[in-house]
Design a protein that fits this description.
Elements (H helix, E strand, L loop, with lengths): L1 E10 L2 E10 L2 H36 L3 E11 L2 E11 L3 H4 E2 L2 E3 L4 E11 L4 E6 L2 E7 L1 E2 L7 E11 L4 E5 L8 E6 L1
Antiparallel strand pairs: 1-2, 3-4, 3-13, 4-12, 5-6, 6-12, 7-11, 7-13, 8-9, 8-12, 10-11
Organism: Mytilus coruscus (Sea mussel)
Protein name: C1q domain-containing protein
InterPro entries: Tumour_necrosis_fac-like_dom (IPR008983)
């Protein structure tokens, strides 16, 4: 059933006439139910989005990483970096000892190292004693005695996998960064 009502209003000195059609009965009930269903769907969608945002926040909180510098030779060809510059979610004293990084958590990691040295030799990122990447030192600037070797590797690590940086010599200005992605 329909009902039509005509109204006359004044806006800024203008007289406007408009008609309003009111739908009565089952059509209105159907429209109200459709709107309520859409609102319920939006609430469910909002709750899912909120849960996804919380899961993303938790994932970021649990990531680990550190940067350490002042490289020096420790054992054979293994290089240790003694000065922690920054860290998140990890203690270098428990996860990085004598030039060995022990993965505290399983996941994907990015290993970056910039080696400064006085020789033109090769440097390696190793995972459990297996070469993952190699870089050869090249002339690094105006000082003829400084060579650099930038290293990087993306790898999947299990808990307690060991990552090392190895080479023949290292300068104290060398650094290492390991982050979980």
């Amino acid at each position: 059933m329909c009902y039509m009502d005509t109204q006359l209003i004044e806006v800024n000195g203008l007289h406007l006439m408009f008609s309003v059609v009111l739908l009565l009965g089952s059509v209105i009930d159907t429209k109200i139910k459709e709107l309520n269903d859409k609102l319920s769907g939006l609430e469910v969608s909002q709750n899912l989005t909120s849960m996804q945002a919380n899961a993303t926040d938790q994932a970021l909180i649990t990531k680990v990483g550190f940067t350490a510098c002042q490289g020096y030779m420790v054992s054979g060809r293994r290089i240790n970096f003694r000065t922690e510059k920054s860290s998140h979610g990890i203690s270098m004293t428990s996860s990085y000892r004598e030039g060995k990084f022990f993965a505290p958590k399983a996941g994907f990691y990015l290993v970056l190292s910039n080696i400064a040295t006085s020789s033109q030799s090769g440097f390696y990122i190793k995972k459990n004693d297996i070469n993952m990447n190699v870089a050869y030192a090249h002339f690094g600037g105006s000082d003829a005695n400084v060579y650099t070797a930038p290293l990087s590797a993306y790898m999947k690590l299990s808990v307690n996998d060991v990552v090392t940086i190895e080479g023949d010599s290292v300068d104290h200005s060398s650094c290492l960064t390991i982050i979980q992605l």
